[in-house]
Design brief:
single chain
Length: about 70
């Protein structure tokens, strides 16, 4: 199973957020889903962040939504 990540905002203030319904416009990135929740797996999110995969897939510089990081790190 996968979880969609989409860009929310424009330019310098763009954030990468979970797109649970896969309905947000524009490009998307996909991460593996944790087995017990509707969130990305923590190790998958960490690898994608370290390698710059989310920004590359969305074709823009983004910051991760703090709510997403916090919820995965619990």
């Amino acid at each position: 199973m996968r979880i969609a990540i989409a860009r929310d905002g424009d330019g310098r203030r763009a954030r990468a957020v979970c797109d649970h319904d896969s309905r947000m416009g524009g490009r998307g990135a996909y991460l593996c889903r944790a087995t017990d929740s509707e969130l990305p797996a923590a190790d998958c999110l960490a690898r994608a962040t370290q390698r710059g995969g989310i920004a590359r897939a969305l074709r823009t510089a983004v910051t991760l939504d703090p709510k997403l990081v916090e919820s995965v790190s619990r």
